[in-house]
Amino acid sequence: MRAYLSRRYRISASHRLHANVFTEDRNREVYGKCNNPHGHGHNYVIEVTVGGPVNAETGMVCNLGDLDAWVRKVVVDRFDHTNLNLDPLFQDRVPTTENLSIEVYRLLAAAFDKAEVVRVRVEETSNNSFEYPIHTPFAAGYRPMS
Amino acid sequence: MILLTRKAEFSASHYYWNEAWSAEENARVFGKCANKNGHGHNYTLEVTVAGEIDATSGFVVDLKQLKGVMEREVVAVYDHRHLNKEVPEFAKAIPTTENIAVAVWNRLDGKIPGARLHRVRVYEMPDLFADYYGEP
């Protein structure tokens, strides 16, 4: 039985949305107050979903301690209480939450060997959230409507 | 096709223990969840069904019937119970959030009039939940 486990983590970080290829005016037009030169910050919620067979001995897809340690090491310790624009990953890309979701997914999925990281969902505020990749977990169990 | 989700809540106690392991191994793998005196959670259950909208009623499912099935099949059995000791499917399977999601699926599948079960999501806490889509 393949199931999915999701856990929510929190980071607080600052960023400024600014594309080097745009003029100053164009940056202000596109990003509005997010282009404020001094940056601003958010309390991000990072929801990580892992998938895999439910282990018959433990009843678990993944030991939470292993997942917590991995997310802390690879994501929380890297980004929490930092300026995202200064991270090497955001030297050539704007630290929008779209890009943050993709980079967090790549960091987490790259080398975790306890379960498959299938999705990352980042809430920038309680009203905005972003998901990557789009999760289609129905491959085996999905029964299309007749 | 459209999806509809209904929530329900239940409160229950449980512990994690594998009889095939030593006490030390249980403590190492399950940590404080291995305390055999048990502990409890307020669980939130989200049941998502899929179907077509009925042209006459405008419903994908009769909500009253869905609520009734969830109440009868799950909440009445799990609420204010010790999952390990009082719910048959956890006599052997450890009542992890993952296994609860699978068990709820098995309790509901095929019993919802007019709609197909799409997803069972069980929140153990607001920051931790398991999803089961009926995948083998």
Rg measurement of chain B, Å? 16 Å
Query: How big a fraction of the residues of chain A is strand?
Result: 25-35%
Count of the domains of chain B? 1
Could you say what the CATH architecture of chain B is? 2-Layer Sandwich
Cα radius of gyration of chain A in angstroms = 18 Å
Write the CATH architecture name of chain A: 2-Layer Sandwich
* Poorly predicted tracts of residues of chain A: 139-146
Low-confidence stretches of chain B: none
CATH topology name of chain B, in short, is: Tetrahydropterin Synthase, Chain A
Q: Measure the end-to-end span of chain B.
A: 23 Å
The CATH class assignment of chain B is: Alpha Beta
Number of strands of chain B: 5
CATH topology of chain A: Tetrahydropterin Synthase, Chain A
Q: Average pLDDT of chain A, to the nearest integer? A: 92
Structure description:
The complex is a heterodimer of chains A (146) and B (136). Chain A is an alpha+beta fold and 146 residues long. Chain A has one domain: Tetrahydropterin Synthase, Chain A (2-Layer Sandwich). Chain A contains 3 helices and 5 strands. Chain A has a 5-stranded mixed sheet. Chain A is elongated, with a radius of gyration of 18 Å. The two termini of chain A are 24 Å apart. The C terminus of chain A is likely disordered. Chain B has 136 residues and is α+β, with helices and mostly antiparallel strands. Chain B has one domain: Tetrahydropterin Synthase, Chain A (2-Layer Sandwich). Helices cover 29% and strands 32% of the residues of chain B. Chain B has 4 helices and 5 strands; from the N terminus they run E-H-E-H-E-H-H-E-E. A 5-stranded mixed sheet of chain B has the order 3-1-2-4-5. The model of chain B has no long low-confidence stretch (mean pLDDT 96). Chains A and B meet through strand 1 of A and helix 4 and strand 5 of B. Strand 1 of chain A pairs antiparallel with strand 5 of chain B, so a sheet runs across the interface.
